[in-house]
Amino acid sequence: MTDIPLLSLTIFLPLLGAFVILLIKEDENSLNNIKNVALWTSVGVFLISLLIWLQFDNTKSGYQFEEKFRWFSDFNFYYHIGIDGISLFMVILSTFLTPLCILASWESIKKRVKEYMLAFLFLETVMIGMFASVDILLFYIFFEAVLIPMYLIIGIWGGNRRIYASFKFFLYTLLGSVLMLIAIVVIYQLTNSMSIEELQGNYFNTNVQLYLWLAFFASFAVKIPMWPFHTWLPDAHVEAPTAGSVILAGVLLKMGGYGFIRFSLGMLPEASEYFAPMVMTLSIIAVIYTSLVALAQTDIKKLIAYSSVAHMGLVTIGIFVVNSQGLEGAMVQMISHGVVSGALFLCVGVIYDRMHTRDINFYGGLVNRMPIYATVFMIFMLGSVGLPGTSGFVGEFLVIVGAFKYSSIVVVGAASGIVLSAVYMLYLYKRIIFGVIENEKLKEISDLNLREKSILIPLAIAVIVIGIFPNIFLDPMRLPIELIISNYEIANGK
Amino acid sequence: MTFHGETRSDKNIFDHAHESPLVMTLPLVLLAFGSIFVGMFFADYYIGKIQYVFWGDSLILHEVKHHYLPFIQTLIVKSSVAIGVMLAALIYFYKNNLPKHLAHNSEPLYSISLNKWYVDEFYNSIFIKPYFFLANLFWKRGDEKIIDEYGPNGVSKIVGLTSNYLSRFQSGYLYHYAFAMLGGLVIILTWFIYY
For A136-156, how does the pLDDT look when each residue is reduced to its tens digit (9 = 90+)? Predict the structure, then answer.
């Protein structure tokens, strides 16, 4: 391993890019410079994260690329970062989606371009920092800091009801996070340690665990989001600009799932066992309920937002069955959902940029004018449905296999969700892509240009690569997941 | 109906009809060949001598109990096919207005057949309509009326109302504040005196 602090570099390079942008004066001529700095910084970060993946050692279950510095002299707070197989792909997902988002905003963002790019680069820093934190306090700081740029992105560059949506998003998630902060304070009081690594296992007595678990649950359940805490998501998605939706669906929702694996399962195994039936119930309700609601939507983005809630319901099922198939399935489902739903939002963005509406009834027959668009959209649509050969299938299949070991009732719920997802996605695709063009305004719509192709085609490739070679993603996460499962089983006397 | 008799389509469309190109003809010929002769080549694999190779252990086969259908049954099958062909020829080929009369005279049967036994309509009413009803119910009632109304919007409404109510105490009149201070003083003094 090299001496270069690669992980810190990934975290702080976007911030450096943001600093450079800050120094550029925004006017007509420098707009392209600003965009280019943002784009190439994020591409560079992506390449460094790939380098981390290349050097990653699949045979270790603990943290790698660790960096640890004492932060406060009197307290046990450290700047302690590192990644294991669970956080590796979350980091790569963030670095993969950010350049695509910046590219997607190239022409659609017209006002305050400089601030927009600043917000995005800052967002990238805090996202990566959150997934790479080993210190709980550091985790919390990054976790909260994600809200700031996202709040601004929705509230400034969003649609008509952006103020309502951004406030709802901010207050909802903040409410959960405050409870998490209290839990963190309690943890420090009890253990005098803030290290996620040290606290893995069964350190707290059962009673304390239950309260801590509920406090963490409040934060992560809002974030992921679980029914009935999901109503901020459709609003935020509808009002956010395309790239905002992509990051929201692609990375921010995964913070909830990541938190469940790290904190709920890793630190509070007895409480997780105790509350698992409740999580299962909420997840099954979420899967069926939101799949039904998705069908009735007339706004494309809202439909995809509801489908996200359903897919994350499968993730929570996979996490709380706590066996290797379920957890691996949940992880792959999160990666897959990050790519697929991000791509679906980008697809909506493509036609929104042209027609400035997201009403499903406005469209129809797009295949006649936009064959390439119809093809990539179909790949993502099938990925979302979970067709074998796409990324969605691997995750859903593993989750269902894992759920079988837990309870067959849960399997019925999860499987019906998959059928329902086929209903609403195919229905959506049929309504906007197939048929003849009846709307006069659509007669002149143009197919993907080079910029849009270079955004969507890498995502389409990713969908198929994850679907066909899931092992390159499963191998690094296998040992960390086994570690969590064995801790969990020891704690619960299994 | 498709091939024989007088054309019922437009003159224009009829003139444009042509034989399919080779790309389509060749597979069609292969499929036609297969549909007639496939039984001769593959019968052995499934029901003949080497069926054990194909089925393996997945089916239990009783070779001894193999028996053939009685002659009369095979005759009925074959002759009903032949009668069907002749009947169709009679109805559609020679008597042009016979189908109309037939359809008219056996009205309910004809409608059921025309509408594919009403299976689509049946599915529509028992699956699709309730599905959309539920979807709208969950969306409009569940999400917007119940979860949002009592959840985030309700909470923010309560906060708004409460602060609105509390802000009335800030009347700006000096004697209101003086009165509040006096009241506070009385309470504190009472506390100290009695405890």
Answer: 999 999 999 999 999 999 999
CB A121 within 8 A of CB A34: no
**Helix, strand or coil for residue B55?**
helix
Task: Report the alpha-carbon distance of residue A226 to residue A112 in Å, rounded.
Answer: 34
Compute the average pLDDT of residues A238-257: 91
> 């059962």: which residue's tokens?
A206
Integer Cα distance of A136 and A143 in angstroms: 10
Question: Residues of A with CB below 8 A from B139's CB?
Answer: 293, 296-297
Q: Is A232 on the interface with B (CB under 8 A)?
A: yes
pLDDT over 90 (residue B47): no
Contact B138 A293 (CB under 8 A): yes
Q: Is B193 exposed, middle or buried (0-12, 13-18, 19+ CB in 10 A)?
A: exposed
What is the model's pLDDT at position A282? Answer: 93
Before A228, cis peptide (omega within 30)? Answer: yes
CB contact residues (below 8 A), chain A span 10-39, against chain B: none
Q: How far apart are CA A397 and CA A386, in angstroms?
A: 9
Determine contact, residues A380/A343, Cβ cutoff 8 Å: yes
Number of H helices, E strands in chain A: 21, 2
Query: Taking a contact as any Cβ pair under 8 Å apart, which residues of chain A between 160 and 199 contact chain B?
Result: 168, 171-172
Nearest to A231 among B131, B152, B156 (CB): B152
- The pLDDT confidence band at residue A399, using thresholds 50, 70 and 90, is very high
DSSP H or E stretch at residue A80: strand A78-83
Question: Do the Cβ atoms of A252 and A147 come closer than 8 Å?
Answer: no
**Is the CB of A231 less than 8 angstroms away from the CB of B147?**
yes
Taking an 8 Å cut-off on Cβ atoms, the answer to whether A293 and B152 are in contact is no
Q: Phi and psi (nearest 5°) for B25?
A: -65, -45
Q: What share of chain A is helix, strand, coil (3-state, %, to 5)?
A: 75, 5, 20
- CA atoms of A478 and A464, how far apart (whole Å): 21
Which of A336, A370, A328 minimizes the C-alpha distance to A353?
A370
Between B143, B148, B156, which is nearest A293 by CB?
Answer: B143
Quote the CA–CA distance of A456 and A440 in Å, as a whole number: 27
Residue B137 has pLDDT above 90, yes or no: no
Q: Which of A85, A81, A206 is nearest to A137 (CA)?
A: A81
Distance between CA atoms of residues A189 and A57, nearest Å: 35
Q: Does A282 touch chain B (CB under 8 A)?
A: no
Q: Are strands A64-70 and A78-83 parallel, antiparallel or unpaired?
A: antiparallel
CB-CB under 8 Å, B152 with A297: no
Q: Establish if A272 touches chain B: CB-CB under 8 angstroms.
A: no
- Cα A259 from Cα A312, distance rounded (Å): 13
CA distance A320 to A300: 31
Helix, strand, coil shares of chain B, percent, nearest 5, are 75, 0, 25
DSSP state of A25: P
**Which of B134, B135, B148 minimises the CB distance to A231?**
B148
Q: Does B135 touch chain A (CB under 8 A)?
A: yes
How many CA atoms within 13 Å lie on the side-chain side of B66?
8
String of b and e for A219-232 (b: at least 16 CB within 10 Å)?
bbbbbbbbbbbbbb
A234 close to A198: Cβ distance less than 8 angstroms: no
Selecting from A172, A229, A293 the residue whose C-beta is nearest the C-beta of B139 gives A293
Helix or strand run (H / E) with residue A65: strand A64-70
ipTM score for this prediction: 0.71
DSSP A240: S
Q: Quick: pLDDT tens for B69-112.
A: 677 788 888 888 888 888 887 777 766 676 677 777 777 777 77
Average pLDDT over residues A432-461: 86
